[in-house]
Fold:
Amino acid sequence: QVQLVQSGGGFVQPGGSVRLSCTASGLTFSNYGIGWFRQAPGKEREFVIAIGWNGVNIDYAEFAKGRFTISRDNAENTVYLQMNSLKPEDTAVYYCGARPNYTPIYDYWGQGTQVTVSS
Structure:
């Protein structure tokens, strides 16, 4: 049984930082790229950032460039999303997803983590 378990998030003030974690089990972690998506109230889910199996290939949404970073520890089956300089418009539920290497489809999803940016 594949599981992606997320942690982190919460309430943060504008300009602050937060780190999300996504830990996988039940799969061969190095066979999967991991991506983060988010969904704000009343909006569709959108892509944030993704990292390839080897941690080298990283894709960013435009709004994430310069503020968000992603890393992975294959020994711990975990991917980290570091978000800095947060803005109120970053408020959303964040989801991690796992896709098999060299495919665009995400097969597995985490449970979602709320990030609220507000003063």
Notes: The CA atoms of residues 3 and 25 lie 5 Å apart. The longest strand covers residues 92-100. The chain is about 0% helix and 50% strand. The mean pLDDT is 96.
